[in-house]
User: What shape does this take?
Amino acid sequence: MAKFTKFTLFQDFDGTTFEEEAPLTSKVDVEELRTELGIPKYVDLSYFPLERAVVTIWASLNAQKLHELFSDVVSARIYKAPISSILFGGAAIKFHCPSTNDRSNPLHRDIKDVDFIVPMKQGAAFYKLLLILKDIAGTRYLHFKTYQDRRFNAMRKGRMYRAHTIRGFEKGSEPMVSVMDIFCDEINLRHNVKIVEEFKRPEESLHTIGLENMILSKCQFVFDLPVTALDELKKAEQDFRVLSSYKHYDPRKIIVGMEEKDMRDVCAILLDHDIGNGPDEICVSKIVKVLKKDKKFALTCSLNLQNIIERGDFLGKLGLTRSQISRVIDRVNSLLKAIPRVDKKWDKPWWNIDVETPKIFNPSQLSLQMKALPLHKHL
Assistant: This one.
């Protein structure tokens, strides 16, 4: 008989302790769920964040009948229809790109968590599902809400939700807890990526926001810094992020674009997928349709893509071969030719500045902060 012991996952500031019994359990066959969902074999489900993603998606798509399948633990219908929970960020990249699942590939990277977006009308039901997922699928997939999570959810009024969950295991068995944010309807950061069609037919985009939205969500990253910060950026080996091709901005400032992980992800998409109109190809017209309606977003996206072209040496340092770099640049050029040209000139931020961005208060600490300065923990 297995010996069970309780361990503490998290202790809230008010003294509330979240505990679970060890060993953690799983009641599902993840490989069977993979087959049912049509997730490609190259997706490495031995990597826990992806395992949890598959379990969550499967439960979401069966939300209307979980009370029948698991009547012993689910007392009532969770939602009247399947819940369209789809991935963005690093997990979505891994669902689409074989190269990012190969640990020997330079484009492989670890991800801290899985990022989900759902229709706003299904947000509350999806959150409810997460909180009982451990009863349905096993304690490996538990989610819980802290005092701060409850405050966050109340303030966002259905636009976003936050919970805590297990993101992986240290030394093979000790669970690591992290924060998980759930977006609703849109990824609204420096610019806004609205999700519509992918909710209707999630299986067509492998239960993700789709290749085109993935590129857009990566290329929306932008902020500025004092020009005096440039030396610190160089010391921190972050100067590859400077978007130097835009000459109309305040000369006392520098514009900073996507970070290394985003460049890796965009390169992975461009290397693993042709440009075209096929089911597993990058449809340029979808990207153009979004950017035609938003000149500010079009400018940011163009600058980040142009920066990839100008950073061939940096791509080489990442481990890409000359032929791979050439292919990336060719495909970036194809995108840039199609993206609407922006004639208007801005000398101050044209992007949304009202987002949760780490602040740099002390330039001397810049080298430490720039190593981990994402616009958001997602993407």
About this structure: The chain is about 40% helix and 15% strand.
